[in-house]
Structures are given as structure tokens and as C-alpha cells.
Amino acid sequence: MSIHKMSDGVFEVRWREGGRQKSLWVHGSHELARKIERKKMSIRDENRHLDIKREVNFRMSKLIDRYWAHYGAKKRSASREKSVLEGIRDELGKQFVREVDGVAVSRWYEKLTALRELSAGTAVRHFNVMHHMMKKAATIWSQETGIDRNPADLVEVRRPDDQRDRYLSVEELGRLKQALDEKKYRKGTNTINKTFYRLRLIVLIAVTTGMRVSEIFGLGWTDVMYNEGLLAVRAKLKGGKMRYVPMLPELAGELRRFPAVTGEDRIFPPKPGATSARQRVEGSFEDLLERANIQDFRFHDLRHTFASWYMMNGGDLYELAKILGHSNIKMTERYAKLARQHIAKTGSTAREIWKLMEVTIADKTNAC
Fold first, then answer.
1. Is there a domain that residue 342 lies in?
2. In this predicted model, what pLDDT tens digit does every residue of 275-324 receive, in sequence order?
3. Which of 30, 97, 146, 203 sits 20 to 30 Å CA-CA off 328?
4. Could you tell me if residue 325 is inside a domain?
5. Which one of 128, 154, 180 terminates a domain?
6. Is residue 248 scored above 60 in pLDDT?
7. Model pLDDT, residue 49
8. Are residues 292 and 174 in the same domain?
9. Both 135 and 194 in a single domain?
10. Same domain, 150 and 220
């Protein structure tokens, strides 16, 4: 350490700390500079400048319990979250949090697809839970866990290709509607087939609004705005912001005819005896696709169908982003290429404007 006089009443105190040269300018007397020098030496000698982390014996099982209580149990997908957390507990629960580094997280992630044979998309959802939990462990719970960096940040995640372009053609839309109408009533009667009628309305909402299946199951009768022709989407997904989607008069008519469950605001409450709050449509939807002779199609592709036909009919990309609830316009730009027909129409409009300008110029020339 040393003290250097820079000018009258100004001194520079220099010292080495943590392998680096540091300095501090002191405005005052030389004695004041000496006092500061002695203080810095004292701090250095006591190793206060060293970034020494205590080895905290906080186990992953305890972190999982805390995360579940503070976050997992409060999510709409709590049952799925519980299953993911228990999977993490089976693999890493006995280890200390400080021992779970990027390598450990990577090994756990690799086993999801290699050993447990989960799909790439499901594995990513499991990883997202791990990432969020370890983020909390490294921030608000860092004093207890003994880590200050999220080890999941070091893992390269192979996210599935979400740029799927599958949407229903005109012919497929016709066959889908026919299949939906065929089982509307019980065979040989005018009695509504309640089980199928439920699926029918869910599909009609999805293909005409672009809503996610979880958002559809979250719809309540108070969200149906008949006068405005809108549906309010209140499901706390993708940012948790409420939005509105257009409701066709035909869809409004279907909703008016759909029987409500007494004492229940949800349009599609869980079926009696359901053991999980998470609702699915996969099985019955696959039967519907088979009857409609539609192949290589998922329920989520109904959302792609709405977005694709919206753009092919001259829709606005930014309006589509609002309808779909995309937080980033880049997510919506995948549909931009389908707007070529609309671009061609715009070109025709521009040609007409050009002709009008030429006529105006010619008139002015003749007038001269």
C-alpha cells in the first residue's frame, strides 16, 4: 500500500486486493489518507475482500418443497408441476443444492428423453420448471442454498421445432365440419349427444378464435361478450395478460345453445370424477380426425389453422399477434409468408393509384 500526493489537499491511496490493484482518491489531509490506508490494510488482513462462500448443506429435496409451496402449488398446472418436481426429487433430491452444477442438470435433462422416453417438447417443459426453481435458489434463496448462479443456464436445451406449418385446407375444413355435425345428435334421434357436443364446441372455438386449449377450458360464461362479439381470455398464460378474441355470430349461436352446468361459471368444467384439474381432448379428438379423414394433425394445429387463414384473407400481422396473445411479434411473423395473396391485392391497389396519377398528370398537361 502507498499514498501519493496528487495536489494540495488531494491524495491517492493505492493497495492490492484480491489479486488486483485498487486506488482511492482522498480529499483532505495526509493524516486522513493514512487513516484510510490503515483501514484498507485491516480489511485486507482480515480477508474481508475475499469472495468466500460458505458450504451450506441445503438439500435439493428441501428446495423442491420450498419451491412447491411458494410457486408450484399456485400455478394453474399444479398437478403437472407436482409430477415434474417429484421427478427431480427422485434424481437429485439427496444432493446438496451447491453440488448440483451444470453437468448434473445436463445429465438429468438428458435422461428425460433417453431413459424416460419423454418427447422433446415435454422434456423442455420439465427443464423450464428446473430452470425457474434453480433461479430462485440462486437469487432470493441464495443465503440458504449457498449458490449465486443458476446452473441450468449452462445447459443447452434442444427445443422442438415449433415452426410447424400444418393447417387445414378448404377440403379438410369441410370434412371436419361434416364430422362435427354428424354426431351432434344421438343416432336416429333429435337428442343432443352431450359428450360429443362438448368436443364439438371446443373445436369450433379453437378453429375460429385461435385460442389455446388451456385458455378454452378456462373460459367462463361471464367471458362471453355477446353484444361486443368478443370472448375475454383471462387464463394467466404467456405473460398473464387478459386479451379479447373475436367471436363469430355463428359461434355465439352455438354458445347460446350449449347447456350450462348449474352453479358453475366455467363453460367446460372438469367432468365428474376427474382426478386431475388438467383437462385433455386428445383421445376424442383423434377419433374425430379419423372420421374426417384428416392425417398428421394435432389439436394445437387448429390454432395454426386460424392464424394461417387469417393472414391469407388479408389479416394484419400485428392484430394477429394481439389475438393470439403473442408477447413477441417474432412469434407471429411465421405466418407472414401466408399473406402473399394479400400482398398481391395491395399491388393491384397500387397499380390503380398509379393509373389515377397518370390521368391527373395528363389532364394537367392538356390544360396547359
1. no
2. 444 566 766 889 899 999 999 898 989 999 998 888 888 788 888 888 88
3. 203
4. no
5. 154
6. yes
7. 41
8. yes
9. no
10. no
For residue 142, what is its C-alpha cell?
441464495
For the stretch 291-304, pLDDT in tens is: 999 998 989 899 99
Same domain, 189 and 88: no
Per-residue pLDDT, 22: 79
24 and 67 belong to one structural domain: no
| Same-domain status, 30 and 72 | no
Residue that wins the pLDDT comparison between 334 and 162:
334
Q: What is the tally of structural domains in the chain?
A: 3
Q: Quote the pLDDT of residue 163.
A: 56
- C-alpha cell at position 274: 376427474
My answer on whether 132 and 70 are in the same domain is yes
- pLDDT value, residue 363: 60
154-173 per-position pLDDT tens digit: 888 876 655 567 889 989 99
What is the residue range of 135's domain? 60-154
In SS3 terms, the chain reads as CEEEEEECCEEEEEEEECCEEEEEEEECCHHHHHHHHHHHHHHHHCCCCCCCCCCCCCEHHHHHHHHHHHCHHHCCCHHHHHHHHHHHHHHHCCCEHHHCCHHHHHHHHHHHHHCCCCCHHHHHHHHHHHHHHHHHHHCCCHHHHCCCCCHHHHCCCCCCCCCCCCCCCHHHHHHHHHHHHHCCECCCCCCECHHHHHHHHHHHHHHHHCCCHHHHHCCEHHHEECCCCEEEECCCCCCCCCEEEECCHHHHHHHHHCCCCCCCCECCCCCCCCCCCCCCCHHHHHHHHHHCCCCCCCCCHHHHHHHHHHHHCCCCHHHHHHHHCCCCHHHHHHHHHHHHHHHHHHHHHHHHHHHHHHHHHHHHHHHC
Do residues 231 and 244 lie in contact, with contact meaning Cβ atoms separated by under 8 Å? yes
Q: Which of 126, 154, 182 is the last residue of a domain?
A: 154
Same domain, residue pair 189 and 279: yes
Average pLDDT over residues 171-182: 89
CATH number at residue 234: 1.10.443.10
